[in-house]
Amino acid sequence: MAGEAPELSAQERAGRPFPVSWDQFHRDCRALTWRLNEVGPFHAVIAITRGGLVPAAIVARELGVRVIDTVCIASYDHDKQGDLQVLKGISEQAMKLGEGTGKGLLIVDDLVDTGKTGKLVREMLPDAHFATVYAKPKGRPLVDTFITEVSQDTWIFFPWDTALSYHPPLRDGAA
Ligand SMILES: O=P(O)(O)OC[C@H]1O[C@H](OP(=O)(O)OP(=O)(O)O)[C@H](O)[C@@H]1O
Ligand SMILES: [Mg+2]
Predict the structure, then answer these.
(1) At what angle do helices 53-63 and 22-37 cross, to 10 degrees?
(2) Which end of the chain has fewer surrounding CB within 10 Å, N or C?
(3) Quick check: CB of 48 below 6 Å from ligand 1?
């Protein structure tokens, strides 16, 4: 409709940028593993793709878990969330390892934001342990273990989505 304000993306609504470097991400994943080590052992890691693949690899390496499965979900088109689409479910083998309910399985994702993705996976594996590296308040109640909470109006920029670029100085003309 004419004159109607354009819909803001999640990133535009999220005023604060929170850039994360590879180093920082690796450190945060290791910190997550320290906590998870007290909860396990786990039979398998279930990565929520695609963002969960990176922390899942690091966590599985640290915990000595060699069985890694994926649940493939698409929801955000860049930074706008649409309907959740399950492109691939959990494998029969991993389901068996989790006794059909996810017992002894570790679900890993990079973050929870609204919690919609996490909720869907929890419904598939109600007894699994759900871990994320970062959590925003709306999604936080869904997560069993996480490392850093950021405010709901923060947008996390992951190292695989970003590149080094010039940043102008804060003060005009200081360049
Ligand atoms: O808590 P929510 O509001 O559901 O958002 C969190 C999910 O959104 C992102 O994934 P995305 O759907 O962008 O896909 P990707 O992992 O392939 O980037 C992120 O990796 C989480 O999986
Ligand atoms: Mg994701």
Answers:
(1) 50
(2) N
(3) yes
Q: In this structure, are residues 110 and 53 in contact, taking their beta carbons and an 8 Å threshold? A: no
Whether complex ipTM tops 0.95: yes
Rg (CA), the chain: 18
Provide φ and ψ at 53, rounded to 5°: -65, -40
* C-alpha dihedral, 140 to 146 to 148 to 149, nearest 10°: 0
Is the overall model pTM greater than 0.95, yes or no? no
pLDDT in tens, 41-96: 999 999 999 999 999 999 999 999 999 999 999 887 766 777 889 999 999 999 99
Report the Cα–Cα distance between both ends of the chain, in Å, rounded: 43
H-type helices in 45-163, by residue range? 53-63, 92-97, 116-124
**DSSP one-letter code for 145:** B
Question: How many angstroms separate the CA atoms of 91 and 68, rounded?
Answer: 10
Catalytic residue ranges: 109-110, 113
Write out pLDDT tens, residues 1-39.
Answer: 556 766 667 767 667 899 999 999 999 999 999 999 999
